[in-house]
Design a protein that fits this description.
Layout lengths: L78 E3 L12 E3 L2 E6 L9 E12 L8 E5 L2 E5 L2 E5 L1 H9 L4 E4 L8
Parallel strand pairs: 1-3, 2-4, 3-4, 4-5, 4-6, 5-8
Antiparallel strand pairs: 6-7
Length: 178
Amino acid sequence: MGLDFRGADLADGDFSESWFTDAKLAGVMLAETDFYRADMQGADLSGVNLTGASLVRANLDDATLKAAILDGVDLVKASLYSVDASGASFRGTQLLGASLLDVNLCGADLTDATVRENSFTVRLDENAILQGFSGSIFGPIEVLTGGAVWEVGGTDLEQWIRERGGSIEVIPRGECTT
C-alpha cells in the first residue's frame, strides 16, 4: 500500500488481483496491462497511459485519473466511486456494468465509449466529448454549465447526450433491460 511507482514502465504486465491501494502511479506507462480484480483504491493515476488495459472488476474507488488515457480499456464491472477523471480519455472504452458514482468527467473524451446498465452518477461539462457514446445508463447526472450545476435525467439526459453526438438510453431506477 502507498508504494511509489512514478517513472516506471509497467506496460504489458499482469497485475491481476494485486494491491495498488494509495499507490503513486502518476505518469506511469500501463498500456496493455491486466488489472483484473486489482485493488487500486485511492491510487494516483494522473496522466497514466492505460491504453488497451483490462480493469475488469477493478476497484478504483477514490482514485485520481486526471488526464489519464484509458482508450480501449475494458472496465467491465469496475467500481469507480468518488473518482476525479477530469480531462481523461475513454475513447472506445467498455464500461459495461461498471459503477460510476460521484465521478468527475468534466472535459473527458468519451468518443465511441460503450456503457450497458451502468450506474452513472457523474458530472459532465460542455467540454466533455460524447461523439459515438452509446448504450444504457441509470441517471441522473450533473451538468456544469457556466459555473452552475444542474441535474438532468430521463429523456432530458438522452436529448442532452444526443445533441453532443451520443446515443444513450436512460433506464428508470428499479428497471433493467433484457
